[in-house]
Amino acid sequence: MEDFLSQIDDAKLPEHVAVIMDGNGRWAKEKNKPRVFGHKNGVTSVREVSEACAELGVKFLTLYAFSTENWSRPKAEVTALMTLLVETVRRELKTLSKNKIRLHAIGNIEQLPKATQKALLKGIEETKDNDRMTLTLALNYSARWEIMNATQKIAQQVEQGLLKSADVTEAVFTSHLETHNMPDPALLIRTSGEMRISNYLLWQLAYTELYFSPVYWPDFRKNHLYEAIVNFQQRERRFGKTSDQLQA
Ligand code: FPP
User: Fold this and answer.
1) 198 Cβ closer than 6 Å to some ligand 1 atom
2) In this structure, are residues 215 and 30 in contact, taking their beta carbons and an 8 Å threshold?
3) From the CB of 39, is ligand 1 less than 6 Å away?
């Protein structure tokens, strides 16, 4: 495979990369293994991509680890995923701190099993002063839930007379989202060849460059990430403007 690292322009790095880690189940099935085997091997890719992003200088990496819709999977798979999360967060804490990576989570965390919440909150607390990169896990996350939640919070403030409806600007709305402390993703990567957004960061992806990789998540390595970034850097982000306007 071509070496993509040497082609990356450090001055044009995406500040925020979001990832939909897809294909764990199919990867396992092709090997005649249970789906959970795919998730377990997916952790290696989580480590590779986190390390690669931190090394490059990406400031925010947001991984879709568990969607609200994932609760409808077989109970054993859900339990195994939760256990894997707890184990991984616990095991990787030292490495995160050594690499100055801050752990963060978005989603309906209060509705997660207690043990998952505990491991997560401990990880977030222990890494809160790290400033090299923020690694956010989207857990029990759904963009429609996030948007509904923000809308309700704003509506309450209007009801209480704390805010006028005319003052509900884009900035006010954004400040009520789970991602209020990070820039919108510049690049979204989805693995496994599926081309959907799947209720992920719907508001934030408005101008994001989308990149779909055919590689199943457990096979996704640093060079695949570099390839996505090189592809991203070849694109012209116009934000609704014309090409000529950007060059002026
Ligand atoms: C999608 O593959 C993957 C998930 C729903 C879970 C992702 C979780 C991990 C990689 C492990 C734990 C993560 C962290 C951050 C510690 P799929 O099961 O939908 O695959 P399929 O589409 O082939 O069935």
Assistant:
1) no
2) no
3) yes
